[in-house]
């Protein structure tokens, strides 16, 4: 099958480096977009920067959910965020080994998880995917995917440390395909793996047909409305795009310009220009 012509083109960026809190991020780890197009960013630096920052593509800053700490509703290393159908926000924290659920206004509903390797326990939970009333959690250092209800009740799991087939090694990101398959960034095995919703191995990509580079520590995955697969290729420092059959479509190493937040900062700090 011939791959469809596809070209990535830079549009804009939102953000600003900060260690003081307020608008901007420190070590942003993940984003999710709510139905009102508000962008939620997991910022996992330290002190006042830790939490879920809320921004828009028009450079509005709406504040932050959470703060640094171990109490309910607090975070230390937020890794991924996702929304359910009621627009509740779920946050995985790989340091605290738990998932926390917030309502639409950012108030805590509940949380679950503890350190360990038994079903229902975590060792550095990272990626999150929510489908209907099912929450898929990437349990990175247990090398598995766990399934829960939205209330945190354990359903089942799959994976286990290994290098091929349905095994995983330090998986990180996760997304869902249009046909119901689950796609996982298998970071330690330099591949992206496709499973059925019940965890049966379907296929994997190490280097898509026509790609210039084999995947090198892929960290996250996403799909668009055409089921094209976007892979954050962390080791190669590029974004690679494949069609639903694994054919390579495009690659981008990155572009950026100074957004309004940065421009305002430099205008107020003339000595740093």
Q: Indicate the CATH architecture of the largest domain.
A: 6 Propeller
User: Which strand order do you get reading across the main beta sheet?
Assistant: 1-2-3-4
**CATH homologous superfamily assignment of the largest domain:** TolB, C-terminal domain
Within the CATH hierarchy, at the fold level, what is the topology of the largest domain?
Neuraminidase
What is the N-to-C order of secondary-structure elements (H for helix, E for strand)?
Answer: EEEEEEEEEEEEEEEEEEEEH
Q: Assign an overall shape.
A: globular
Q: Radius of gyration from the CA trace?
A: 19 Å
Q: So how many helices?
A: 1
Work out the helicity level.
under 10%
Averaged pLDDT:
92
Instruction: Indicate the structural class.
Output: mainly beta
Poorly predicted sequence stretches spanning 5 or more consecutive residues: none
Gap between N and C termini, in Å?
A: 51 Å
Q: According to CATH, what is the class of the largest domain? A: Mainly Beta
Walkthrough of the structure:
The protein is mainly β and 273 residues long. It has 2 domains: 131 residues, 6 Propeller (Neuraminidase); 109 residues, Neuraminidase, CATH 2.120.10. It contains 1 helix and 20 strands. A hairpin with a 4-residue loop joins strand 10 and strand 11. The model has no long low-confidence stretch (mean pLDDT 92).
